[in-house]
Amino acid sequence: MQNRFSVFTPAQARAGSSKQAEQVDQRTKIRFWVMVAALLSLYVVSQFLRNSVGVIAPNLGQEFALTPDDLGVLASSFFLAFALAQIPLGAAIDRFGPKACMLLLSLLAAAGCAGFAAAGALLDLSISRVAMGIGCSSFLMAPLTIYARWLNPRQFATMTGLQLAIGTLGTILATSPLAYGAAYFGWRNVFMAVALATAIFTLLALFVVREAPSGAPAIAGKPGTFMESLRGLIGVLALPGVFPVFIIHFTSYSTFASFSALWAGPFLKDVYGMELEQRGNLLFVLATAHIVGLFLWGPASTWLRGRKRAVMAGAGCSFVMLCVLALIGKVPVPVLVGVFVLLGLSAAYSPVVTTHGRELFPVHLVGRGMTIMNLGVMGGVFVMQLLSGYLLALLPQEPGSYRWIFVFLAAVLLVGTMVYRRAPETFPSPA
């Protein structure tokens, strides 16, 4: 049986015998999976940092006297910086290569973690979050660009799902583990540990990451200058179907992340009276369900015979779950756990959205195209978290006000899904 990830290895064609070809193929596969491990490690850090405010938000609020809109600004500053970095990042990846961009920015992410741990005021926290956001801005796009050069389109789709699923271990680490770590060691020490881990993963990537397999042909259409690469963004935006897919990127993950990474923790504290460890446990359930869903929605695009059909199904289910949260009020905890599980599962269709976007771009525009899509993802989270923070600040400071946050998120997702209906359908390639 052919290996599912039979990476592109042109050197095999020049091997002197079948035995030599087999040896070349095996070495290439080992090198590829070691590289994947390094890339996944950095992406886990990114997922942890983007979700890390949620579980400790009440603690930060108490220590620094933060209001709901302060928390919204603090959480969203990561995503604003991440989003704004995408346009120059896409051009830089296509011009200078994904590895160089990733290594340079990862040092900034480590510095941001250290700064967050040493912060003494809201401004310090926000500046550190900005540094984290810029630093993590390449931890998905650079690996996806590398995978696009190593794998065929079908393998790329599966690898995208694996990258997102394994990376979501960072989301899990930002739930119960972060809660217990903050309770027993202090949240500052936790972030210093993350800074050290990021530096170690960066060093590993320096030695094991290769942008393409040996003997791979040069990429046609690669820009000659950085400005040519930036001008190539116009070509990306002009491609048919890009705008509606950009809009679903903007609204889909942002609504789920605004709930899971920001408001779920305060909601559980204010409505259910849960302490730090209890909040972490329930968010752990939400994150675990989301990881399971990441593995399910990829095959679902095959079962449903189309990327757009799968995305529409996932977005519709997510909309229903957000509406349920808005309508049910305070319910027994077992019922709430069930709602969290269903929301986590239904909102995990992002690998299909990412693959749909990837299938719109020719190879030489992959870097810029994927970063434009990621601009939509992270820009959407910034806007949703910021606006929802201001919305909650305007509402009466009572537990029932959270339902209006859920109504707002559901409405945004509905609008995004309606625009996405105009996107061209793409179909999984046959096995």
Helix-residue proportion:
over 70%
Rg (CA only): 21 Å
Summed up, the helix count is: 18
Which overall shape is indicated by the principal axes computed on the Cα atoms?
globular
Number of strands: 0
Question: What string gives the helices and strands in order?
Answer: HHHHHHHHHHHHHHHHHH
**Unreliable runs:** 1-5, 9-16
Q: What about the largest sheet? A: none
Structural class: mainly alpha
- Round the mean pLDDT to the nearest integer and report it: 84
What is the beta-strand fraction? under 5%
Distance between the termini: 13 Å
Q: Any chance you could write out the topology, listing elements then pairs?
A:
Blueprint: H1 18-64, H2 68-84, H3 86-96, H4 98-117, H5 122-136, H6 141-150, H7 153-167, H8 169-173, H9 176-185, H10 187-208, H11 226-238, H12 242-272, H13 276-303, H14 307-328, H15 333-346, H16 350-358, H17 366-394, H18 402-420
Helix pairs in contact: 1-2, 1-5, 1-7, 1-10, 1-12, 2-5, 2-17, 3-4, 3-11, 3-17, 4-5, 4-6, 4-10, 6-7, 6-17, 7-13, 7-16, 9-10, 9-13, 12-13, 12-16, 12-17, 12-18, 13-14, 13-15, 14-15, 14-16, 14-18, 17-18
Write up this protein:
This protein has helices at residues 18-64, 68-84, 86-96, 98-117, 122-136, 141-150, 153-167, 169-173, 176-185, 187-208, 226-238, 242-272, 276-303, 307-328, 333-346, 350-358, 366-394, 402-420. Helix 13 runs antiparallel to helix 14 and helix 14 packs antiparallel against helix 16 (350-358). 78% of the residues lie in helices and 0% in strands. Mean pLDDT is 84; it is low at 1-5 and 9-16. The radius of gyration is 21 Å and the shape is globular. It is mainly α. It has 18 helices and no strands.
